[in-house]
Amino acid sequence: MKLRANLIIGGALFALAILVGLLAPWLAHTDPVLDANLMNAEEPPSWTWWFGTDDQGRDIYSRVVYGARVSLTVGIVSQLINSVIGVALGLSAGYWGGWWDDVVNALTNLMLAIPSLIFALAIMAVLGPGLTSLLIALGLTNWSFTCRIARASALSLKSQGYVQAATVLGYGDVRIMITQLLPNMLGPIVVIGTLGMGSAVLSEAALSFLGLGVRPPFPSWGSMLSDARDQITTAPWLSVFPGLAIFLTVLGLNLLGDGLRDILDPQSRSRRT
Amino acid sequence: MTGAPLIEVEDLRIDLDDGSRRVAAAEGISFRIDRGETFGLVGESGCGKSITALALIGLLRPPLSIGGGVIRFEGKEIQHLSAARQRDLRGNRIAMIFQEPMTALNPVSPVGRQIAEMFVLHKGKSWREANKLAVEALASVRVPAPERRVNDYPHQLSGGMRQRVMIAIALACGPDLLIADEPTTALDVTVQAEIIELMRNLCAERGTAILMISHDLGLVANVCRRVAVMYAGRIVEERGSADIFRAPSHPYTQGLVDSLPRLGSRAALGRSRLKEIAGVVPAITSFPDGCRFNPRCARATDICRTVAPTAEWLEAGGLVRCHHHA
Ligand SMILES: Nc1ncnc2c1ncn2[C@@H]1O[C@H](COP(=O)(O)OP(=O)(O)O)[C@@H](O)[C@H]1O
Ligand code: SF4
Ligand SMILES: [Mg+2]
């Protein structure tokens, strides 16, 4: 099997981000919150302060390392919620059709009509800031694309011989959906999920930038950008490093999504053997 | 109940709802299959064989529906059973294999798992037990090295091997009836013969009755003890296989027999054309009045164009539906 460059680079960037998040306590030089020291406020990057320090003298490198935890948790968990909702709704709507399909279609169109970030903003306004609110807001607002794809796949798969054969063999509807339909649509769902994680990381940054994310002083990449915006000319390193972290993570997830699409494509799958 | 046939179909009618009206896609279908018996359903494509099979297993879906008649399984009516009860029958007591071994298996699931799923679903086995039984089932359809083959995906198997897997799945739960709808049409001739032989032997060993459906009278008569010939939604003749070849009674059956290549004949060697039945099967919505075969029938008279013939018992045994049968 030929591994593509996008898969390798994307996978490596994403794996790096996860490793950094997991190993944060060992990688960080200082405590991201407690080790404030006004004696070394606003130091530019140097051998001691790799990414510089902020106006309270906190080590930006350590804060970026810890920030990976929030960004990735939000990205992965909220996208998992979206995937589960999208697949459950789309798969059942496509397979059963009828009024249930109409209901799901109406819901999907509603979700598509309202930009998901605006929707998430509204939910955050009700729930208040915080990690749990972020997970809920982003997890409930970005499933429409997954739902569309799951529905379309179910529609085309349900006329396949093996789905009909399963009916003839006495499989119930739920068993058919789980054993016959779901595994055969997993490719595109995983691809969309990977890309969706990227956009969830971005949304987390946006919401945190607006002050709706994780409460300070605990760092997230978005809230670090938000804090840094007044010093963008005087201390650009405050924005550059969290920005770079977001950029590389999202780039990695997009490359990974593209790479996965290449290998999970059903056509290339059969060619592979 | 021991006297009741395994399956008994009485005056079954299948409706096709085309939005504005209901037309009968099949009607007056009656036959019975005893335990362990082999019964064939033959006819040109589109005459209603597959929808009859679907009616038996409760899988007609709109626009098709059962419009009348009775289907009994072991003496009990099954056409009005709840969806859950019908599911219990399907795959467990009545199994079916299809024409397309290429598409009838789930491409992303190892074949062993697909066999094992039947034991989990219908026999309440644990996956551990079911996986062991799957190896045995694969061995029973003479797939070499079954303990390795269970891990194969369908695309790693040839068409013949896949049809063997389908047979293993269908026979996994020891059904009483196996419906085989054009089971070998998509396969090479040599593979065809192997598969038919395998199916026949396995069913004979286990006392499983076969309902064999095909457009190929030769194939069906070879496998089945009795054969029903369908034309345009009706059974026109039902006889013992040997009788139907020796002395076909209905003009349509005669046409089918004449169109078969005989071993050693010039037609079989491709030197002369086989006799074909002139004309085509009429569409459901435009069945002719009277006998539906009359536009294509050499023996047709005026009565054939107005009055539908009823089923008549033949002295030699069997049924025929023709005003001027032989
Ligand atoms: N789902 C369906 N919708 C409409 N017409 C159908 C459907 N299935 C079968 N038919 C019609 O019913 C008739 C019998 O079909 P079928 O039983 O598949 O024939 P065959 O004898 O070739 O198996 C055909 O004329 C076919 O067009
Ligand atoms: S009833 Fe008449 S038209 Fe029909 S098969 Fe017999 S002879 Fe031919
Ligand atoms: Mg058919």
What does the model show?
The complex is a heterodimer of chains A (273) and B (326). With 273 residues, chain A is mainly alpha-helical. Chain A has one domain: Orthogonal Bundle (MetI-like fold). Chain A is 73% helix and 0% strand. In chain A, helix 9 (173-209) packs parallel to helix 10. Chain B is of the alpha/beta class and 326 residues long. Chain B has a domain at 248-326. In chain B, 32% of the residues lie in helices and 22% in strands. Chain B has 11 helices and 12 strands. In chain B, strands 6-7-8-3-9-10-12-11 form an 8-stranded mixed β-sheet, sandwiched between helices. In chain B, helix 3 packs parallel to helix 6 (159-171). The longest helix of chain B has 18 residues, at 189-206. Chain B is globular. The model of chain B has no long low-confidence stretch (mean pLDDT 89). The A-B interface holds A 160-162, 164-172, 175, 179-180, 183-184, 186, 270, 273 and B 57, 59, 84, 87-92, 95-96, 98, 100, 102-109, 117-118, 121-122, 155-156, 166, 169-170. The structure holds adenosine-5'-diphosphate (ADP), iron/sulfur cluster and magnesium ion. Magnesium ion binds next to helix 1 of chain B. Adenosine-5'-diphosphate is lined by residues 16, 25, 43, 45-51, 63-64, 284 of chain B.
Strand-helix topology:
The complex is a heterodimer of chains A (273) and B (326).
Chain A (H helix, E strand, L loop, with lengths): L4 H18 L1 H4 L32 H37 L1 H16 L2 H12 L3 H9 L4 H14 L3 H8 L4 H37 L11 H8 L8 H28 L1 H7 L1
Helix pairs in contact in A: 1-3, 1-11, 3-4, 3-6, 3-7, 3-9, 3-11, 4-7, 5-6, 7-9, 8-9, 9-10, 9-11, 10-11
Chain B lengths: L6 E11 L4 E12 L4 E5 L6 H8 L7 E10 L2 E2 L5 H7 L4 E4 L13 H13 L3 H14 L5 H4 L9 H13 L5 E5 L7 H18 L2 E6 L2 H7 L2 E6 L2 E7 H6 L4 H8 L43 H5 L5 E2 L5 E2 L6
Parallel strand pairs in B: 3-8, 3-9, 6-7, 7-8
Antiparallel strand pairs in B: 1-2, 1-4, 4-5, 9-10, 10-12, 11-12
The complex binds adenosine-5'-diphosphate, iron/sulfur cluster and magnesium ion (MG).
